[in-house]
TrEMBL record:
Transmembrane segments: 12-35, 61-86, 98-131, 183-205, 245-261, 268-287, 307-325, 416-434, 446-463
Recorded superkingdom: Bacteria
Subcellular locations according to the entry: Cell membrane
Domain (Na+/H+ antiporter NhaC-like C-terminal) ranges: 149-428
InterPro entries: Na/H_Antiport_NhaC-like_C, NhaC_Na-H+_Antiporter
Family from the record: Belongs to the NhaC Na(+)/H(+) (TC 2.A.35) antiporter family.
Entry GO terms, CC: plasma membrane
Membrane topology note: Multi-pass membrane protein
Keyword Repeat: no
GO molecular function: antiporter activity
Protein name per its UniProtKB record: Na+/H+ antiporter NhaC family protein
Keywords: Antiport, Cell membrane, Membrane, Transmembrane, Transmembrane helix, Transport
Length: 489
């Protein structure tokens, strides 16, 4: 009976591994879950529908944040914010020894600015793979570096959909998340950069210098056509990198980050980013017509449409799926297993982390993992740990970090994951001189390795207490309940 209740998860995982998009797999799995709930737990279809709707209702604020986030990403990619960031880095001068490290840092900053790892990789792959070609760097090292950096903002970005959704599921504020894991995330980036540079030096790479304009000139015409079809804003960004934009276009990013640190609400931070990028873009000449902003094909429209056409609809279906699975208490066997194995709160939290990794590998989609496994680890923690409201909130922050970090960074270490397949597709399209394989993204992805391993080790050992704001409360401030009630019954 327990396996039958879990079979909708296996169905969703099978569909996604088989190549179905989450937008198709989730509705099929949701309908099947309602049938299983009816046959195993005597849950009527009306009750399943009510549970699905209630689950989706909890995500309403997230939907608005996502629409604004996508709109701001379009503005940053089109008005010159992204190009200014890239040009500031490129003007420092690159060699084979530094191209991978620079790619890591630039993509990390750009991903925070735009909130999208896929968009960041699509925009930066043409620049850095051809720069790497010019300076005779190590192609796989550079490819893995920009892949890892592109996910940095997905893990800590104020406007990242995975950051927003993982925080919403655990009931924590996005800004609190950023404060909680900010130092840890930056330390991971620094350590990954040091390793990349050390490996570059160890490979004996040359010291030939190059510039972004030269790299862009070498991009083949078919690559431009592919980018125009798949990511038009990336074409705009590349042209701006070549032609140049004023450096003051980085101000919107600084204002957004500063506002977030000051505790300004997420929607307000996004609004600040959109408005300032458009105003400064008008002075820079990158915004010339009001219809380019608010017209039927304008930046705001495109951002809202991109969010609504896939991610929000997918989230609604997966949220409905989670609501029905929760209604029939499908995850009780998993929860009970973890509770039996855990002898302390730290052990329980480590099991939560491992469950996120397992879910990510099974579902092959980081967002599906976040919305499917997120409610499970929330229930496990809420129903089996007791402590003050403040300490319980810290555990929720860590659970949100698990879902997000082990989703986006963990995905880059899973060969069959949709993340890896997307990156391989982009890299192959923009640099046809090499036949990319899935392991090419994994082999030198030190950013993903450092993030995943450090999160697991710090959580389990308690060494997270040495990182500001990142330490978890310890026993006896928090402790396991004497009688674990993993499912809340």
């Amino acid at each position: 009976m327990a396996l039958l209740k879990l079979s909708p998860v296996f169905l969703m995982a099978g569909l996604m591994i088989g190549g179905f998009d989450a937008l198709i797999a989730a509705p099929i799995a949701t309908i099947y879950a309602a049938i299983i709930a009816r046959s195993t737990a005597k849950v009527s279809f009306q009750d399943s529908l009510n549970s699905a709707i209630e689950s989706v209702k909890e995500e309403q604020l997230v939907f608005f944040i996502l629409m604004m986030a996508y709109a701001m990403a379009e503005c940053f990619m089109s008005t010159g914010v992204g190009a200014a960031i890239i040009n500031m880095a490129l003007n420092l001068g690159l060699t084979a020894k530094t191209v991978a490290v620079t790619g890591l840092v630039v993509t990390a900053i750009l991903s925070v600015a735009t909130g999208t790892s896929w968009g960041t990789f699509a925009a930066c792959a043409p620049i850095f793979l051809w720069l790497n070609h010019i300076v005779d760097g190590n192609l796989l090292l550079t490819t893995a570096a920009i892949a890892g950096g592109a996910c940095f903002g997905d893990n800590i970005g104020l406007i990242s959909d995975t950051t927003v959704v993982s925080s919403g599921i655990q009931g924590v504020e996005v800004i609190d998340r950023i404060r909680h894991q900010g130092v840890w995330s930056i330390l991971c980036l620094i350590l990954a950069g040091i390793i990349l540079f050390g490996v570059s030096v160890g490979m004996g790479l040359p010291n030939v210098k190059a510039d972004g304009g030269e790299a862009i000139d070498q991009i083949p015409e078919e690559v431009w056509q592919n980018l125009e079809a798949e990511r038009p804003s990336a074409v705009t960004l590349l042209n701006q990198v070549k032609e140049g934009v004023p450096y003051y276009m980085v101000i919107p990013l600084i204002l957004v980050i500063g506002s977030a640190i000051k505790g300004v609400p997420t929607l307000a931070c996004l609004g600040i980013g959109i408005v300032t990028s458009l105003i400064l873009g008008a002075f820079a000449g990158t915004v010339t017509n009001i219809s380019d902003v608010v017209g039927d094909e304008g930046l705001i429209f495109t951002g809202f449409a991109d969010a609504g056409s896939w991610v929000i609809v997918m989230m609604m279906w997966v949220g409905a799926f989670g609501g029905i699975m929760g209604r029939m208490d499908a995850f009780a066997p998993i929860s009970n297993f973890i509770v039996r194995k855990a002898k302390s709160v730290r052990q329980l939290m480590t099991w939560n982390a491992l469950l996120c990794l397992l879910g990510n590998a099974t579902l092959s989609d980081e967002m599906a993992q976040i919305v499917t496994i997120g409610p499970i680890i929330k229930t496990i923690t809420d129903n089996n740990v007791e402590g003050s409201e403040e300490d319980m909130y810290k555990l929720k922050l860590r659970n949100a970090t698990f879902g997000d970090a082990l989703g986006v960074f963990g995905s880059q270490l899973i060969p069959w994951h949709v993340y890896v397949n997307f990156y391989i597709g982009i890299a192959s399209a923009v640099y046809p001189l090499h036949k990319f394989q899935n392991w090419d993204i994994i082999k030198y992805n030190f950013m993903a390795m450092v993030a995943v391993l450090s999160l697991l080790i710090l959580t389990r050992t308690g060494w997270d207490r040495f990182i500001p704001r990142f330490g978890l409360p310890s026993e006896p401030d928090v402790k396991l309940k004497k009688e674990g009630l993993a499912t809340g019954k």
